[in-house]
Specification:
With 288 residues, this protein is mainly α. The protein contains eleven helices and two strands, in the order H-H-E-E-H-H-H-H-H-H-H-H-H. Among the domains are: 67 residues, no CATH class; 35 residues. Helix 6 runs antiparallel to helix 7 and helix 8 runs antiparallel to helix 10.
Length: 288
């Protein structure tokens, strides 16, 4: 057998193995369109209008169906009733997070949004407690929102009624409310640090919406070897890590454990408490 024939035989075997594994996996999942090997159902989805594609597929396969965006299956819940049943009626069973290779590479499984399992539950519990202490759903948060609303109206008045694109300004307002909770202070809309932060966040959202990121998530082995916008995403997240680390160092220098000023202070205090408990536990073990 020639080398070409042998290579063709190996590729054919791999192709058939992929089909068999996919077929076996699909029996355990909700119905959905038949996927192609490697690319899945990409050709059946309009990447420029994904919501319309999902709507059309839900008419054929029902409100719960399976879609392959590459090699990995995704169970789609379409419509209010399906989402409510999953996340409200069976919230505990659906509280997990799927693996997203791009974010796993960036956050190493840590954080609030893209972590999973015990890490996510612990961070969620702490975050809710900290936000309640700062008045989530109470007057203090409402005051911050009203203050930012006044600043937003003042910024719009500066246009003197001339035509303008308000997208950026409207994005600054909620970002500033979050900053006031996390950093204790809001930023002027023309502040250079704030503009850099907003620019990085906006770019990340744009990059994450591209088909290229879907390819990276489905073939994580290529992330380190191919050029592409995923590298810009990694650079932006590295910048954001350094940005928040600098904020935490400044907070640590002036930290008062009896008077937390914002979310970062609460996080630093919790860290100190955890370290203290760990040291006490080890000391007791040594004594015994």
């Amino acid at each position: 057998m020639t080398l070409g024939g042998l290579l063709g035989l190996v590729l054919s075997c791999l192709f058939l193995l992929s089909l068999w594994r996919q077929s076996s996996e699909r029996r355990k999942l909700p119905p959905g369109p038949t996927p192609l090997p490697i690319i899945g159902n990409i050709l059946q989805v309009d990447l420029k209008d994904i919501s319309k594609s999902l709507k059309n597929l839900s008419k054929v396969y029902g409100p719960v169906f399976t879609l392959y965006l590459g090699r990995k299956p995704a169970v789609v819940l379409y419509g209010y009733e399906a989402v409510k049943e999953a996340f409200i009626d069976h919230g505990e069973e659906f509280s997990g997070r799927g693996s997203i290779p791009v974010f796993d590479k960036i956050n190493k499984g840590l954080g609030i949004v893209f972590s999973n399992g015990k890490n996510w539950k612990a961070m969620r519990r702490f975050s809710l407690m900290a936000l309640r202490n700062f008045g989530m759903g109470k007057r203090s948060i409402e005051d911050r929102v009203q203050e930012e609303a006044r600043c937003l109206v003042e910024e719009l008045r500066k246009t003197n009624g001339s035509p303008c694109d308000p997208t950026f300004i409207l994005g600054c307002a909620p970002c500033n409310v979050i900053c006031s909770i996390v950093f204790q202070n809001r930023f002027d809309y023309k502040d250079k640090d704030f503009l850099t932060l907003m620019n990085n966040l906006n770019k990340n959202v744009e990059i994450l919406s591209t088909p290229w990121i879907q390819i990276c998530n489905n073939f994580p082995a290529i992330i380190d070897y191919l050029p592409g916008r995923h590298r810009e995403l990694l650079e932006n997240f590295t910048f954001l890590k350094h940005y928040f680390l600098a904020k935490m160092i400044k907070h640590q220098e002036s930290l008062d454990i009896n008077n937390p000023r914002d979310f970062i202070d609460c996080f630093l205090i919790k860290m100190e408490q955890q370290v203290t408990c760990l040291l006490l536990g080890r000391r007791q073990q040594v004594q015994h």
